[in-house]
């Protein structure tokens, strides 16, 4: 504890002297009182057992703090300009698709490597109706015959090739895409 | 609404008192720039009003003004940042190309924007005197922030976080005519030419 006594203002010096006198009455009273009395030993008096306990206690707390210190965290807020540069970079923008064509059958748009959506839904609806007919003919589950099935539309008769096959009849004109064998 | 008397003289007389140079004579701030005419919670319908502007009839010699159609959809349940990528994709395209791109995009907002474009196309043909529905291109396409709602999101161990359920608006402006040709990218030669031009146009200041 250092005490600087030399002060230019006389009233301050007098005040300090009075304070110093009150604190240490048996010290020599002069212009410059000596430095502070005895040196105080700082820190607690450590017993060997207490050292171990304190060191164990001390080891746990720093490890937690160390792990918290090592976590990655942003130091500065990213400005909107920096954010915009990242979000609007050409690699992040959506690419214009060049694989879109026109379906030759129906005229709708289709991707080159994918079936035309319109034609696919058309076929799907027709097959759903054929399946309904099959279900009605079979009458229940596990009644599928062990023979092939032929679908015949209005005005069609079974040929010689369709001898032993199951015939499903649909009450409409044959669609252009369903070719008859 | 009181009837507007026709003629440019009336309009000039109306605007003669509203000369901004006189207000700025003292050198202070422009006074009307500090006035807010609406709060943040009020709904803004400026885009819908843009369809209502009526231009004066064109003179015989002027080139034909192309038709402009403004359309928007509000409070779409999608993020404005994700919607922005779609809006950026179709900016400057013809309407057919934009519809094709959106049809085969996997994003949720693509379906919404496709509906908006089809609605706008139909509006153009019915109300805005557009002859061919394919003769339109997208002049502007923008997204805006809708109303957000904060909700609790429960995590494990009793922890929770606040999440925000975001909505967005989508604005589109269709203009009649073929799409404008894309700007050629700026080359180094163009930049050098501009720099030299800038150096040449320098003048001497504070001299005789």
TrEMBL record, chain A:
Transmembrane segments: none annotated. It is found in: Mitochondrion. It comes from the Eukaryota. SUPFAM superfamilies: Zn-binding ribosomal proteins. The keyword Mitochondrion applies. InterPro entries: Mitoribosomal_protein_bL32, Ribosomal_bL32, Ribosomal_zn-bd. GO terms for biological process: translation. GO terms for cellular component: mitochondrial large ribosomal subunit. Keywords: Mitochondrion, Ribonucleoprotein, Ribosomal protein, Transit peptide. GO terms for molecular function: structural constituent of ribosome. Belongs to the bacterial ribosomal protein bL32 family. Component of the mitochondrial large ribosomal subunit (mt-LSU). The mitochondrial ribosome (mitoribosome) is a large ribonucleoprotein complex responsible for the synthesis of proteins inside mitochondria. This is Large ribosomal subunit protein bL32m. The gene is Mrpl32.
UniProtKB/TrEMBL annotation, chain B:
Its main location: mitochondrion. It is found in: Mitochondrion. GO terms for biological process: translation. InterPro entries: Ribosomal_uL22, Ribosomal_uL22_bac/org-type, Ribosomal_uL22_sf. GO terms for cellular component: mitochondrial large ribosomal subunit. Belongs to the universal ribosomal protein uL22 family. PANTHER family: CHLOROPLAST 50S RIBOSOMAL PROTEIN L22-RELATED, LARGE RIBOSOMAL SUBUNIT PROTEIN UL22M. This is Large ribosomal subunit protein uL22m.
